[in-house]
Design goal:
Chain lengths: 399, 233
């Protein structure tokens, strides 16, 4: 038997609500100021160069976009895979997914050399480009998830609920495949250029998205004083552990494949044992803090309360995820293109040497702005619509 | 301006006579797929300390730069290649390779990266949004991003902050029936290591040499069919 879930808007304009909105707004304002500075001066004031062409904004953007599709998983677990326990959280799941995507896209667009030409990107399509497909997939994601949310909230559309759920699930799989293929389809970048990038990105999205969702949920429940069922939280932490394990599996597969190809030995030695920031981030933050430790927390060996475990594991997965995307994007570009395999090269254009990248404050602030936008959308969303359950608990208490 | 020796003038005029491209394209006429413009670079004639082609490119394209090597544009650069076994050195210019199957064109979301019918790969800076995906995709590191305001621009090459740019094979010259600036300068001031012409025209010098002599392409294994070929490496 399924207990009926009551959804209630969050009361806006309270002191806490206003403080949070002001804080997020301040971060967003700082991000816009950073954009104005970077666009006015040109990208030379950032850490990005002709060698490392994608920097911190892309790390934030890719993390948020990947997490967005993963945040929808809680809804999919309930409606596509029949795990009714998750169904009360489906609305929040849809909202968080759209909010994270909006934040990620904002960062991506505002880092373009010509963000004023966004309309060009929306009107000129090169259908052979995976970037173009991603423009379509990202835009479509909003529409599909919005429709899915509508079917959840309007009983007259109940018959479209399952098809919408399935469409949203499939859409998000294709979307993350597309994001992974941005890197997978590069012929000459030795750190990528493999089909495994697509499933790797899907596994990353599962983990990052669920971690972000758990953090939002914990914060929302705490600040609105809504009860949060520990059994449900425990389920989510175990699910997070599963996703973290899947991510680690694909990371291992990717690097083992690379190591097996003699020509890719150089880039692997650089990332895995080069002794640079990338090596530290890979082993220390991505694998250690963001992989192994959350696994331990999810599947035992930690005696803390489930709420504490959920918070810590999710924070670590987000931290590890940022490190993972950093190593992927920046580390992958730091390794030089090999124009003459087997030869030693040098030039005035930095050929043949490891490229340095130092993130600048404006880049980081722009990235944080994306997170702030996601936060603002969630805040406004749960205040305007009935998305957050009055009591966050398993809808199948008799099980 | 550098004074030319009599030997250099004779060499240059000979090179122009031999390697001058086909007739100029009449205004308004589209580029023809019957042509495949390309370069043949003999690295045996390319001295390590010679950067004549690079200087000519900078002057022709108005690449004044800001003395910031990591962000200033370079359409053509000299690469020193050393064989770790034995230490044999080669020095050669590398620019956009004008691939028949250019990855930069494939990945460009708006179609700003494009290939003309005659094989010249260009960036339409009116619709480039500055996403830099083409720079991620190019195996030759041939593209630069305009990281800041540009001064000293040439009328034939307007440059815009926030867009991507690269070697155009001096398309403005080619359309007038002239040689690319690097080729002309190499012939006039160096040893004439660069040969420009129509790879599709069996009667052209470049096509005849490609047909009869050993030539290589950088990263030929990628299957991109570059229009720039090399000898001596």
């Amino acid at each position: 038997m399924t207990a009926k879930t009551v959804y209630l808007e969050v009361r806006p304009y309270t002191r806490g609500w206003l403080a949070l909105a002001a804080a997020l707004g301040a971060v967003l304002a700082a991000a816009l100021a950073a954009v104005w500075y970077m666009e006015h001066q040109g990208h030379w004031v950032t850490g990005m160069t002709n060698q490392v062409v994608w920097g911190m904004p892309h790390v934030f953007a890719v993390f948020l976009i990947v997490a967005a599709s993963g945040a929808l998983n809680i809804a999919s677990m309930g409606s596509v895979f029949g795990r009714e326990a998750y169904q009360p959280l489906a609305r929040m799941s849809g909202l968080v997914a759209m909010a994270l995507l909006a934040g990620g896209l904002m960062v991506l667009v505002l880092d373009l050399g010509r963000p004023d030409r966004l309309i060009v990107a929306m009107t000129h399509f090169n259908l052979k480009s995976i970037f173009t497909w991603n423009v379509v997939l990202y835009s479509g994601f909003f529409a599909v998830v919005a429709a899915y949310l509508w079917t959840m909230m309007d009983w007259r559309l109940k018959r479209f609920y399952k098809p919408a759920a399935l469409a949203a699930f499939l859409w998000r799989l294709v979307l993350t495949t597309g994001t992974g293929c941005i890197f997978g389809f590069l012929v000459a970048r030795e750190a990528y250029g493999a089909a495994v990038m697509a499933p790797l990105f899907i596994a990353m999205s599962f983990a990052f998205g669920l971690a972000a969702f758990i953090l939002v949920l914990l914060y929302a429940a705490k600040t609105t004083r809504r009860p949060l069922d520990e059994a449900l939280l425990g389920r989510m932490v175990r699910l997070l552990g599963l996703f973290v394990a899947a991510n680690l599996y694909f990371v291992a597969l990717h690097h083992l494949t690379q190591l097996y190809f003699a020509g890719r030995g150089g880039v692997e030695a650089f990332i895995l044992a080069g002794g640079t920031i990338h090596t530290l981030l890979f082993w220390g933050v991505q694998v250690g803090l963001g992989g192994v430790l959350p696994l331990v927390m999810a599947f035992g060996g930690c005696r803390h309360s489930v709420r504490k475990r959920a918070t810590m594991a999710s924070l670590l997965v987000v931290l590890g995820g940022m490190a993972q995307v950093y190593v992927l994007i920046i580390g992958g570009q730091a390794w030089p293109l090999d124009l003459f395999p087997g030869m030693e090269v040098s030039s005035s254009f930095a050929d043949g040497r490891i490229h340095a990248y130092t993130p600048t404050l404006p880049e980081v602030v722009l990235g944080l702005g994306g997170m702030a936008v996601a936060g603002l959308i969630i805040l406004v969303g749960i205040s305007a619509l009935r998305l957050l359950p009055a009591e966050i608990r398993d809808s199948t208490p008799n099980r | 301006m550098t004074a030319l020796s009599r030997r250099q003038v004779v060499l240059a005029s000979g090179a122009v006579l031999i390697t001058g491209p086909a007739l100029a394209r009449s205004p308004g006429a589209p580029a023809s797929p019957a042509n495949r413009w390309g370069l043949l670079i003999d690295t045996r004639k390319c001295a390590a300390d010679c950067t004549v082609c690079v200087s000519a490119c900078k002057a022709e394209m108005g690449l004044s730069g800001h003395d910031r090597p990591l962000t200033d544009a370079q359409y053509i650069r000299k690469i020193e290649v050393r064989d770790p076994v034995g230490g044999k050195l080669h020095s050669l210019p590398v620019m956009c390779q004008h691939c028949a199957k250019p990855p930069c064109v494939d990945v460009c979301p708006t179609g700003a990266s494009m290939k003309r019918a005659d094989g010249i790969v260009l960036v339409d800076r009116h619709i480039c949004i500055g996403c830099r995906y083409c720079m991620m995709a190019c195996p030759y590191k041939a593209r630069s991003f305009a990281h800041e305001e540009q001064t000293g621009q040439q009328p034939h090459l307007p440059r815009g902050k926030g867009t991507v740019e690269s070697c155009t094979l001096c398309v403005h010259r080619v359309d007038e029936g002239r040689l690319p600036a690097c080729v002309e300068a190499c012939a006039a001031k160096a040893k004439g290591a660069m040969l420009f012409g129509d790879l599709n025209d069996p009667a052209s010098e470049i096509a005849r040499r490609v047909a009869s002599e050993a030539t290589t392409r950088i990263r030929a294994d990628l299957g991109l069919d570059p229009g720039v070929r090399y000898q001596g490496i």
